[in-house]
Amino acid sequence: MNALVLSGDPELVDDVRRLAAAASVEMAVASHPAEARAWWHRAAVVLLGPDVLAGAHPRRDGLIVLSREASVTVYRRALELGAEQVAVLPEDEPRLADRLLRACSPPSSGRVVAVTGARGGAGASVFATTLALIAARRDLRVLLLDLDPLSAGLDVVLGLERTRGTRWPDLTRLRGRLSPEALHGSLPATRGVSVLSHAHDRTSRIPAEALASVLSAARRAYDLVVADSPRGTAPSSDQTLLLVPAEVRSVLSARSLTTAASQPLLITRGPAPVRLPSSSIAETLALPLHGHYDLDRRIPPALEQAALPTRGPLARLCTRLLPSLLPNPP
Hints:
With 330 residues, the chain is an alpha/beta fold.
């Protein structure tokens, strides 16, 4: 048994059951603290509903507080209990689903790295794709995950838009466990990188259950999953890279993305139009600087030909970052 949910709210329990089923996580349910004693320390994750927060609960790792709204009272009580996070439903369903599937993932599972930009057009898609290509050149099994349905699409970036294979619309009704072999075998690939992108109709939303199932399978099928995530919606990941162009408006925009408990790794991109140093950006955002690169003039024309280079400032930075993103560097 991997998870325990303690709540007397049937609608909340049903929502958690749905997410657990998508992640193929075995879950026990208790409506009263006395019923939960047998599983409290055996479960990998314990989920507490807002209706039972006032009770006395032993402290333990893997404790998550559930809520329908983000209130000061809920967060204060979560802090008192030593909870690792507060999951506000339905907004945090993708993050909670990913946490549930990680509860039963083997230690050798692949790593998920999310790349997000401080603003639209920051270059997150190019960064994510270059990182994936650099990893593939080191004989790693790599999946490039397109999570932004409003972007041009990572299949276009790599010239795979006409290549047959699975896209997100094919997986929107996915429930339960997805075979890692089936996922790997169905995706279009080039230059050693598998790609899960959106189809030409990019209006479909990725359901939390489908994302959880794909991430669960991807962690088993690949050494590295690089997720190109739209601003402010990065999934729960092992590491998040925040790309901030060296300009005032991007720094101001990035402030809203650095308030979570899990701090991203800051990457700055030049050139700076007003000579804004990377060190000043890091100080303003209260984040350690993990890298800087200047925009390569070869990249825009290379994108038109779906031929991103694996040499140059960005490629060198990705090469340097890669060992820090993996538990067992290549």
